[in-house]
Design a protein that fits this description.
With 288 residues, the protein is of the alpha/beta class. The chain has 12 helices and 8 strands. The chain folds into 2 domains: 11-176, Rossmann fold; 187-277, ProC C-terminal domain-like fold (Orthogonal Bundle), CATH 1.10.3730. Strands 3-2-1-4-5-6-7-8 form an 8-stranded mixed β-sheet, sandwiched between helices. Strand 1 (18-21), helix 1 (25-36) and strand 2 (44-47) form a beta-alpha-beta unit. It is elongated and about 70 Å long. The protein binds NADP nicotinamide-adenine-dinucleotide phosphate.
Length: 288
Amino acid sequence: MQPPAPESPAPDLESRRIAFLGGGNMARALISGLLRGGVAATDVRVAEPRAEARMELAQRFAIDTHADNAAAARDAALWVLAVKPQVLREVCTALAGLAQAQHPVVLSIAAGIRSAQIARWLGGDIAVVRAMPNTPALLGAGATGLYANAHVDADGHTLAMRVMQAVGLCHWIEDEAQMDIVTALSGSGPAYFFLLAEALEAAAVARGLPQDIARALAAQTCLGAGRMLVEDGASASELRQRVTSPGGTTAAALQAFAAGGFTALVADAVGAATQRGAELAAQAEGAA
Ligand SMILES: NC(=O)c1ccc[n+]([C@@H]2O[C@H](COP(=O)([O-])OP(=O)(O)OC[C@H]3O[C@@H](n4cnc5c(N)ncnc54)[C@H](OP(=O)(O)O)[C@@H]3O)[C@@H](O)[C@H]2O)c1
């Protein structure tokens, strides 16, 4: 699903207060996207422990800032948990009383923490949406997988989706276990493309191309190929075949990739990341 056009209003969020708990990089990207999308600054609040960061947030977005999480969360329909996973438990348990009194929709972007843990830390029976965005969300070009627990109603789905669409493309995932695959695909995915760009640049430099030119051409090739993938509508396989003439240079390179087991290597990498995601979640569950 495509994000709303910047000028289109977001009627489902009108007059619904949204509280961000944690005002770091991801919260700032989301707040910026929401305000661009037409949400009123008066409907957005943020809790952030550092005074300097609160001042920056207030100056940049003209929103209410709080040192205390409960002060920001009070009367908000949606709580966005935008703190690091390590502090999430402490943040949630301190808000359990308020969560039980208000029953907000809780949207967590913390990597790896299961919805059941969050609901439990907040006192139980809480509507929790988990989102797994990726770093390009900071540019409004994110890819996010979303999972909602059984307490999230249609309105809660809409609220959470609107927030995450502010920073890019979103898809709902039915089975929470599949969030580990989303993490391995799109969460960690930008690093795979950086690795490929790095390797392309190094290979071209090793063959004599000046580094600045190799870097610029590798980066622009990633951007152009990515745009074709998104904008053309054809599959990656079709696009690859279109640029591969029999006996040509691309065919020679692809043969070298195949000989080196590229597809199996990518499958191994995604498998390793999926497994690691599940292990980290299990560790967090054990520590809970
Ligand atoms: N960045 C990404 O690309 C990305 C992608 C996927 C998921 N995520 C998830 O998004 C979440 C936020 O990541 P981020 O990159 O935005 O991190 P970040 O920039 O470090 O933001 C976290 C913010 O929370 C604040 N904070 C710390 N303790 C707090 C508390 N007890 N109550 C309220 N706020 C508190 C921090 O303040 P201080 O600076 O004072 O510590 C910081 O401003 C993480 O859970 C991460 O897993 C991020």
